[in-house]
DNA sequence: CGCCGAGTTGAACTGAATCAAGAAACGTGG
DNA sequence: CCACGTTTCTTGATTCAGTTCAACTCGGCG
């Protein structure tokens, strides 16, 4: 929880009252490994902050499981496409490990941001952070080769390789499991 | 200008006073074709709304010109990575046609959003829209083949193919000019 | 006319996917 | 604590989508 608060404090000014307000709108939840948090076809109603564990977003493209996002400790995860549009998601979300999460419900989050000037601003800057994340990943996948993407991954997500099946990382990086295995072994 | 205002009105509530405030913070600028609006190494200080014309963002990867984004009429364009972090951009921005643009300066935009509760909210929802755009493009480039990406492009950007050199569209879609030429002719 | 940039087409090449076995690691029940 | 089946990872052979390199076409314009 300390890390969660720090994330917001780093973004903007968070007064003690607003901090309390924030904490009152979110819920601490625990799930065992391999729990489905969102099914395709449903609207994504929650954003999760990962306190402990690991979450994955994925979808089925031509019947194959493809990882869209991997969320380790201290990161926010959600099917943002559906979360913001309020339309059914084409993506699934699952836990890959036993998890402790902080759940941000859509309606409550909107209410939170609307409840004070300061929070509204934090919300805006929070979204800007999200834009930066996506922009970076977009550039990465647009311009870099499979080997470069792997290199960047192990640098930006140290330790995750050991915690997630290779196949999931491979599709996250836009390559097959075999290719990743070969890159990893130095061909 | 009407289209610009409509964009914001569609997002949230824009009172007449705030509308006036908004208009007073932006500047209408005109540039001839092939004008450089941002050079690599500089911080991107402006976001542009394209009233008329066409803007392109690009960078040099291994000495080659690669298009990152194409902004036609009624869209916002800027090197958001640099714009939000206030760090030097690795990207360039140029006009591809004579342009009429509305310039949103970083500091003024922040001031605008800070100047009222309503505008702060509009700013937040505006950023959320940006997230949606990036999320869509990320999925597109992550999961689809060259031919699929082309198909989606001509549907989402009708007419642009006729206005932009093929090489720029090709690199925007993550393929070579020759490949795009072949896809277009049906192999 | 003849040049020049933009687009097309062809042939050879290559990075990565696919298909197909194995090997290693893992977990569960006896 | 071992045995067995399942899942995960590696390795090899082949195929394929897309790149590279190079030549050629076309239309505009001095």
The CATH C-level class name of the domain at 2-116 in chain A:
Mainly Beta
Radius of gyration of chain A: 17 Å
Instruction: Give me the strand/helix succession of chain A.
Output: HHEEEEEEHEEHHHHHH
What is the assembly state of the chains in this entry? homodimer
> Strand fraction band of chain A?
15-25%
End-to-end Cα distance of chain A, whole Å, is: 42 Å
Q: Globular, elongated, flat, extended or rod-shaped: what is the shape of chain A?
A: globular
Instruction: Summarize the biggest pleated sheet of chain A.
Output: 4 strands, antiparallel
CATH architecture of the domain at 2-116 in chain A: Sandwich
Number of helices of chain A: 9
The structure class of chain A reads alpha+beta
Protein name (chains A, B): Crp/Fnr family transcriptional regulator
Pfam families (chains A, B): cNMP_binding (PF00027)
Domain Cyclic nucleotide-binding (chains A, B): 10-121
Question: Would you write up a description of this structure?
Answer:
2 copies of one chain form a homodimer. With 187 residues, chain A is of the alpha+beta class. The first copy, chain A, has a domain at 2-116: Jelly Rolls (Sandwich), CATH 2.60.120.10. Chain A is built from 9 helices and 8 strands. The first copy, chain A, is globular. Chains A and B meet through helix 3 and helix 5 of A and helix 3 and helix 5 of B. Chain B binds a DNA duplex (30 and 30 nucleotides) through helix 9.
Itemize the secondary structure elements and their pairings.
The structure is a homodimer of 187-residue chains.
Chain A: H1 2-11, H2 16-25, E1 27-31, E2 36-38, E3 46-52, E4 55-61, E5 64-71, E6 76-77, H3 80-85, E7 92-95, E8 99-105, H4 106-115, H5 117-143, H6 146-156, H7 160-163, H8 166-172, H9 177-184
Antiparallel strand pairs in A: 1-8, 2-7, 3-6, 3-8, 4-5, 4-7
Helix pairs in contact in A: 4-5, 8-9
Chain B binds a DNA duplex (30 and 30 nucleotides) through helix 9.
